[in-house]
Amino acid sequence: LPICPNGSINCQVSLEELFDRAVKLSHYIHSLSSDIFNEFDERYAQGRGFIAKAVNGCHTSSLTTPEDKEQAQQIHHEDLLNLVLGVLRSWNDPLVHLASEVQSIKEAPETILWKAVEIEEQNKRLLEGMEKIVGRLHSGEVGNEIYSPWEGLPSLQLPDEDSRLFAFYNLLHCLRRDSHKIDNYLKLLKCRLIHDNNC
Amino acid sequence: SPPEKPTIIKCRSPEKETFTCWWKPGSNGGHPTNHTLLYSKEGEEKVYECPDYKTAGPNSCYFDKKHTSFWTIYNITVRATNEIGSNVSDPHYVDVTYIVQPDPPVNITLELKKSVNRKPYLVLTWSPPPLADVRSGWLTLEYELRLKPEEGEEWETIFVGQQTQCKMFSLNPGKRYIVQIHCKPDHHGSWSEWSPEMYIQIPTDFRVKD
Asked: Mind listing the UniProt keywords for this protein, alphabetically (chain A) (predicted)?
């Protein structure tokens, strides 16, 4: 699909097209995140009661994101876009380490390894796309403030297998959760900004 | 004796805005027994009691919008108490994001049509369940339809994604078909029940003219 059809000079991808691509990507990333979590859960977490421990929250818990429809609809779209950017940025670092550390899991199946790498790459692409969208909507400025650091690398390298597996479980649980939030918020924003809440 | 411990059997959200949990009491130990549902939410120490025991009927707890949060793990237990003592169910961990089961689609229409090149086909249209807010994008539904000749055994099931209409070609002239549709959230949750059966009689002359 040529970006600039027959010779027009200063053409841009439309905001609608940018949102379409972002939603397709966020949907894909969440599907991968769901699959990798389910696969890990089935193979390594059965009967270990990890879910009870997973309630200590995720490294992005400090980001106050909407938790129900009313909150999601009341928040200004600029704030919601910046939150999406902040969550995406906050996952750059852990996804780099997930893709490498997951190789150390005993008999980790190829599908888990491949998905970890794929999610890392696609997350970067989505972040770039979202920065374009925010740049388009807020005429050039892209706020950089929202970010939540991740300090979980040591726990992915613990000698005790149960603790290490729980660290992976919790990271994948949080990835599934946050990627679903991002996908949901982008679908909301697309309906609000492109289709005037009439999807 | 004290009552047996109850069992939490199911939690369901019909529209990703509220949810309900149901439990099954154990034996009451021969004494009048009452049940209390208690829950805590991820990241909070506080324990809450069920906000509404009535709306969803006996042995249930209904969480309205104000009491429903997504992407948050609820730790739910039910305690049975009689004059001798009490017993508590095993904890039930729920994230409402993953328990959405919508109602079936509505307003299903079936219409026989002929296209320009005289190829006959059937057009199906439907609407999302009324409770589901798909317009705002909060909930995205996917649909699947199934059909079979009335006397046939095997259903043909077709996944149609997020669209709410579908064209069907190559139906057998003279046959009477049964059609049903159901839906599910785009990622998590479960399929709705099938919509009520709809019937369509394909005319005998429903044939491609050479």
From this structure: Disulfide bond, Hormone, Secreted, Signal
Complex ipTM = 0.90
Instruction: Convert chain A into a string of H (helix), E (strand) and C (coil).
Output: CCCCHHHCCCCCCCHHHHHHHHHHHHHHHHHHHHHHHHHHHHHHHCCCCHHHHHHHCCCCCCCCCCCCHHHHHHCCHHHHHHHHHHHHHHHHHHHHHHHHHHHHCCCCCHHHHHHHHHHHHHHHHHHHHHHHHHHHHCCCCCCCCCCCCCCCHHHHCCCCHHHHHHHHHHHHHHHHHHHHHHHHHHHHHHHHHCCCCCC
Select from B73, B97, B134 the Cβ nearest to the Cβ of A55.
Answer: B73
User: Which of chain A's residues have a Cβ under 8 Å away from the Cβ of B95?
Assistant: 177
Contact assignment for A192 to B73 by CB distance below 8 Å:
no
Quote the pTM value: 0.91
Question: Nearest by CB to B138, which of A65, A72, A177?
Answer: A72
- Tell me the three state secondary structure of residue B192: coil
List, as ranges, residues 130-149 from B with C-beta within 8 Å of A: 133-138, 140
Amino acid at site A52: A
Q: Tell if the CB–CB gap between A190 and B137 is shorter than 8 Å.
A: yes
pLDDT tens across B76-91, in order? 999 999 999 999 999 9
Greatest alpha-carbon span in chain B: 84
Select from B148, B162, B164, B158 the least CA-distant residue to B202: B148
Neighbouring CB atoms inside 10 A of B85's CB total 12
Q: CA–CA separation, B140 vs B187, rounded Å?
A: 9
- For residue A52, give both structure tokens: 């009870």
Q: Is the dihedral of CA A155, A161, A165, A168 positive or negative?
A: positive
Return the pLDDT at B210.
45
